[in-house]
Sequence to fold (793 residues):
Amino acid sequence: MRVLILTSGVPFTRGGAEILAESLRDAVCAAGHQAEIVTLPFQSCPPSRVPEQMLACRLLDVTESCGMRIDRVIGLKFPAYLVPHPNKVIWMLHQHRTAYEFWDHPAAGDLIHYPDGQVVREAIHRADCTLLPEAKAIYTLSRNVSDRLRRCSGIDAEPLYNPPANALLFHNGPAGDYLFFPSRINSVKRQWLVIQALALCREPVRVYFAGEADNPAQQAECAKAQRELGLTNQVTWLGVVSEEQKCEWYANSLGVVFPPLDEDYGYVTLEAMLSSKPVITCADSGGPLEFVVHQHTGLVADASPQSLAGAMDALWADRRRAAALGEAGRERYLDLKISWENVVDKLLC
Amino acid sequence: MLKINWFSPLPPAHSGIAYYAAQILPVLANRHEVVAWTDQGQVAPELERTARVVRYDPANPPWRALNDADVSIYHLGNHGGIHGGIWRVSRQHPGIVVLHDLCLHDFFAMVFLRILEKPDAYLAALERWYGEEGRRVGEAFLAGGIGAETMGQRYPLTREAVSGALGVITHSRGALEGLHETPASPVAALDFPYAATEESRYLGWMAARSVAPGPPYRLVVFGYLSRNRRLGALLEALAGLDEREQFRLEICGQLWDEGHIRTQIERLGLGSLVKLLGFLPESLVEQKLSTADLAINLRYPSMGEASLSQLQFWDYGLPTLVTRTGWYASLPDDATAFVRPEHEVEDIQSHLRALLADPGAFRAMGERGRQSLENNDPEKYVDAMTQFAAIALRRSPLVTALALAGRVGNDLSAWLHPAASAYLLDRASQEIVTIWPGKPRGYP
Fold:
């Protein structure tokens, strides 16, 4: 089969979606097919640009290339998943989130700040409802994304879990004296919440943050909070780390703290489970809640500094229990039989 | 229940639309969550008890807060100073536009030329809707070669006010089509709302009127008295009437050119029959209307929209003379007496003679007008407005589709010969209709 993976991206940025597309391409090729990624540039501001890009997607013809038929198209992201094709399958990473669950989010909302935000939001809703059903099948990245799709667009879709990149590299190691939080630094991942929680911890909890800030202001805000709360020794900013280094930081941590707001899926959770580490997350964190079972594979706190501090203290104070939760997490991961083979089978079926 | 942003002049502004808002907002706020946005300095305290009143700066509107509502409702009339700020928000944040005037040339002339001082924008608007001819006449208007009245009639620029709106409400059926200014968005013509005074008070007025029947018969003219209110023709008709001593005319309201009217009264020898009373306080309005015998409510040319004063006259059970034009032409024959624009003096005189001959028939005409106010119940109006808002919101992706079609067309025309762009336009149109199904009004 000749398979085209269609996704959208913001030029000069790279994140989980790009890694996922590449992993999918590799997995399709490993299954004996030809696969390529087509990434369409996407610009969400000003909102009037969004319908233009939706139309541009609709005007693309990807049914063939140099006279050779393209057998299957896999759409991943808005608006690339709107490109028409008779054998299109959608594996939705998410819809355009600021038109949906992040519409009025104080930090993440963007459309809502523009005069034409409301009509563009409505246009996106209508287009999703009208055009998504064109696909032969719709899968999503997680149950959380499926739930949102059903709630917002009335469309049912099966969640299809995939392993994180470099899954084989993750391993367990001796538990050190820190909790690990690897992620892009921004308001939605909520590093700020962890910093506020640290200020309330009774135990001498330390957190190592890895990853780059989406913009310098967000990093500066976190650093300022750290200074103001007197957390010089409890917080370490590792910056960008390699995949190998990341695996080591996981392996040598006591556990992982990952409290994002309504995460689509959350590779961090899976990486922690593969590293046999317990995960602390929040009740509104979305995707991680599909894997973290409270008091079994980790701890689920309320999204408040007090509650999160209590969970971090609890893990810090009982290292044996932390290890047991981490082991249970790894077993749960294996039980779920998450594999690229399964993903490819479904998407090319 | 809807969350509604409401933009209109509010009391105590001297505007019929502010009066309209004072009637509608309590009913609307009873059923929906309403925020009344205003850039006025002062708002009547009683209104603030009815709906939440919030100030905004038209140059820097609070988009985040406006986007919290389900729909914005903008009220536009022909006064650039009063409605300019509302229009500036409406053109950026699509909502439902309620047209209180249908010829908006004067409005745009004031906004573009006097307030924003952008003559290029004025000419561009004329060109947008009337092509090269629009630009040419606009230039002639700027040079003083064409009058505002002609521009208003031939180039009303109404589409400039409703372009990109989710929906348009008028109070005059078929009026936009008549002007050839039909927008692409849904249009509803609603009966202008008016809360009739309670029956007991009305009966009191009727009784008072019959206690002191004419002659002399009391004629009244009310409102903002611009050139189109035909005072010249009325004075001429009265002067030419042999029975003129059997009438008294009171002109109440601000005159567009008081000196001119005074001169005319003097020239026609009507000094003892005609009084200019200026703008009257509310208490005197009641006194005048409850004792008058006939209201003269002429408009020519008409700006097309419903007249609050007409409904007020009917509220008092007053018979009225109206011009057979615009909204007035749609009024019931048995509740009004019509004046043909081309036979004004002749028709006015004929009606005044008819009043002398059969005052009872005129009283009955006023009573039928009063009965017709049932159609103007504000509760019914809010029902209709709510239903229309639901339709307009359902069709809101149309705004995006039309804007996109416009941008595609503009872009292609910049670099592609029309013959070569046909295929692309067709493809783009097909896809736009696929993404957002549904057709705008007036499109094949």
